[in-house]
Amino acid sequence: DKTYRGTVSVREALQRSLNIPAVAVLDSVGPAQLMARLRRAGVQARLSGRSAPGLAIGLGGVGVSLHDLVTVYAAVARGGEPIALRERAGEAPETKSHRVLSAEAAWQVADILASVPTPDGTRNESLAFKTGTSYGYRDAWAVGFDGQHVLGVWIGRPDGGSARGVLGIETAAPVLFEAFSRLKPVPTPLALPPDGVLTVSHAELPTPLKHFRHPAMSMRNGKAEPQIVFPPNGATLDLTAGGNTFAPLTVKIRNGAPPFTWLADGEPLQVSRFDREVSFDPSGRGYVSISVIDRSGQAARTKVFVE
Questions:
Q1: C-alpha angle with apex 28: 23 to 29, nearest 5 degrees?
Q2: pTM for this one?
């Protein structure tokens, strides 16, 4: 929009559909990961003229039907659990086994979308929604959900031609809100946050979580990023101490700026530690993902198998 906004939060970037933050985050995650999550939801995404997805898919550079788009938002509305849409009332829902998002991530996305500014003349009562306009004004869409229903609206030309001036927020979103008002007098409240969700202000966040950092940045302020020197990624560790008990798993790092935040499978182990190693008791046999984040937000990760 030819406006420099400076540093923005992830919440503001998503609500305002800012392209640069979206591309930066997708570049960090990887386009293939996004495509894999879409497939988990049951989406038949189509790429034009290329075999591998690129960063353009984060800005609409992928073919998705309205049916599939509603399917994705249904998964977010269900706390990250995908479900196939039903063609008729009374049909048994077909659930899928692989999550699209964690329950915590899905709730965060829903909470952000519940605060999107609404079209003029409408009210947002427990309704999370997002709009979009495709290149060349060929498609204007809006998808929204409350605690019970998901609705999708598409406006465009049947021949796929340009309909200049047709915008998602101005044309599709009012139809979405009108449809919800006809479906029920008051939207069903959205789900409460699941256990483990951080619902604090930005100022109260741990330092490593306050600023997004692209993983390609290997140095910050002249300091090398932390590296996990033990255990190495992909290692198999025999920690059997007898019976169903296990010896502690010790993790060691080098580089990075303390204090460090340690996590195992996404759960905090130690916060604000200056030590360069930490020990913890694994929950049992299987894979364990270990992460450490330093003061400047630089991170290192490793995944091992405990037997």
A1: 100
A2: 0.71
